[in-house]
User: Fold this.
Amino acid sequence: MHRFPISPESVSGDRVVLRDAQARHASVVLRVRAGERVVVFDGSGREFDVELESVNAREVTGRIVITRTVSGIPLHITLLQGVPKGAKMDDVIRMGTEIGVVEFVPFLSERTVAEARQRAERWRRVATEAAKQSGRSDVPVVYDPSPLTQALEKLAGYDLVLVPWEAERNRSVRDVLEHTGRASKIAIVIGPEGGLEAREVEEAAGVGGVPVTLGPLVLRTETAGIVAVSMVLYGLAMRDNQQGRPQALVE
Assistant:
């Protein structure tokens, strides 16, 4: 069935209404018809099977026939990403959403050269579409870009903060995870093209950040965060499995 992201205000009792761009996409592009069933999700983890009653380019209405609360990955992973050039941030948001990132915090650092103004709304649209495509019933939060110092302020209360850095040669993600207790709220800090300055790594260390290596090869900024998130998900899933706890990854 086709999936549509909606706002909570689009649901009233057992009725759902899609308007404007969503209605045009459903009626003109996807050519759905009255009587068909679609899935809508409101970004909070709830999704609904909806039987459509009326369809036109201005408004699509339907009746909720099934309501579900969908559990996702039981890890809160936040990716702090130095804003890269061009459309690379689109790729970071899309792939990060597909693998389970909950929050994206774009930041500006000493080596940032990209123009970040007025791009956050586009990134939010990318996150919404990626959640729709990947079957997620929640949509990640995408913050407006901010200086690194302000971005780091969002990490109070995190169980673990990893800082992949090319100057760190010995401490791996695996090493850190093996010596970390139960962690459910994890942040990963990735520099822009050219990486983080040593001073910025020290600043991240001030909020508990741990510099780590992702391996012997130098990764692009748009690759590094996705690799690091994947390592964390896999590492904690394997550990929880061995200790008899629920897996951190779900199909």
User: Anything to note?
Assistant: The chain has two domains: 3-69, 76-242.
